[in-house]
Specification:
Helix content is 57%, strand content 3%. With 185 residues, it is mainly alpha-helical. Helix 1 packs parallel to helix 6. It is globular and about 55 Å long.
Length: 185
């Protein structure tokens, strides 16, 4: 089971990083939905989550404290967008390091290894490494889905099913769905 979860996690991590390829620095950073979600911010957020769930929670904190955790700005959403001083290379390198750190934990710990998430409420923070690995797979897939939508808004590049139809086919499909929705106006 651990191997299957790890394989899913590695695949989804790669899909997320691929969403940054072939677009401008501006497009990687710009928010396209009211919540402010943006591609580089999603990667930055997941770097922190990897370190906490698959590291700190099992006694393997990262070598350095992330700046937005050190100053507390993580609680104001500072992990969800990249500062101008934080380059794409910095964020992606940080994410790759966090993933490698998580991979080491996956190799080291059994799924039933006790874990404790420091920022969860006192009555909920004790869990297992397996539960956190499942949560990490879920978090990564969840945010990779956001990345699919954001990238589609940027340049039309959709998710893994984007090649099923050509542009005319997608337009017809969209129109069909729109018409169905309009029956409820």
């Amino acid at each position: 089971m651990k191997t299957v979860l790890h394989d899913y996690l590695k695949g989804t991590r790669a899909l997320l990083l691929a969403k940054l390829e072939g677009i401008s620095e501006f497009d990687r950073r710009r928010p396209l939905v009211p919540s402010g979600s943006n591609l580089l911010g999603l990667v930055k957020h997941l770097a922190g989550i990897e370190y906490v769930y698959l590291g700190t929670s099992v006694g393997r904190p990262p070598a350095e404290v992330l700046p937005w955790e050190a100053d507390g700005s993580v609680w104001d959403g500072a992990d969800m967008w990249a500062q101008p001083s934080e380059s794409t290379e910095y964020i992606t390198d940080l994410y790759r390091k966090a993933c490698a750190h998580g991979d080491e934990s996956i190799a080291q710990f059994d799924l039933d290894t006790p874990a404790e998430v420091p920022h969860w409420g006192e009555d909920q923070r004790r869990t297992t490494f397996g539960a956190l690995l499942v949560r990490m797979v879920d978090e990564t897939a969840h945010h990779a889905g956001h990345a699919d939508i954001i990238r589609e808004l940027i340049d039309g590049q959709g998710g893994s099913d984007a090649g099923m139809l050509d542009e005319a086919g997608w337009s017809e499909y969209y129109t069909t769905i729109q018409r169905a929705a309009e029956t409820f106006k």
